[in-house]
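Late entry, written up from scratch paper. The run itself happened at the end of the previous shift, but nothing got recorded in the book at the time, so transcribing now.
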Amino acid sequence: MKLNFFDKILMLFNSILIFFQMLLMGTFVDFHYFPLLNILVPILAFINLFFFVYWIFIFKWPFILFIVSFLFGHSDWALLYKFPSNSISVSNGLSILSKYPLYNKGLINFENSNNGGIYSDLKYKNDTIRIYNLHFESLHLSSNDTLNTTEYPGKIKKSLDQAVKTFRQGKTRQRIEKIFNIQEKQVLRFNEIQKTNDNFSIVCTDLNNNAFSKPYKLLSSNYKDSFAQKGSGFGTTYEISSIPFRIDFILVDPRLEVISFETYDLSLSDHRPISAVVKF
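Output as recorded:
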């Protein structure tokens, strides 16, 4: 059907949003010049999906915009949402628990930070697997928002309201960008440590950033994201004002096979637990 003037304005707006979503998802090229913008990907996706449904409902051709963007960036969409699949592809507060003996245990300290990680090797049959448990720099929504905080929901909501008030002054933006830079340095520090490991490895991490961020790209470059392999839905592990974020990851050595992945809807903390089954 022919577009009227109002439809043309909406189509232009929709096109701009789709372009920015694809840009921030890294469809064209890794885009991390404004790291704060990368966390907007889920919001842009929701808006563009709404436009897609709207165009379908009024039976007008701009619905093709969404389809084309999906075809061009389908691999990037897999980092945001995964449809269920039963197929098997061939291809301070941290702990590691195992029914197999653990040895070569160690700590990973990040400079000038309370965050860090631990690692341990375990023997499985004739193979050695290095397991990492990493916690990267938090956004520190409030001075009390730490790993051991128990009253998460109320405090985070209060902190978020305060952040909105001060955002125009640039304080929150500058603080978040500074934390993202710290996360990048921490990931690079971990990558240097991992280079000394020749065994299989699995990284379990609270990255405190999403799958479209530069820290994630740096961390996952040599791994398979178990959610992208076998997850379903948005894989939400953290919410801010009902906006879903996936900031917790299980990254698997590319030589291993991910059999299944699960995100659990359990209120054990402000994060939802995740698990993956891996075949050696």
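Residues 86-91, 142-152 have pLDDT under 50 and may be disordered.
(Scratch paper discarded after transcription.)
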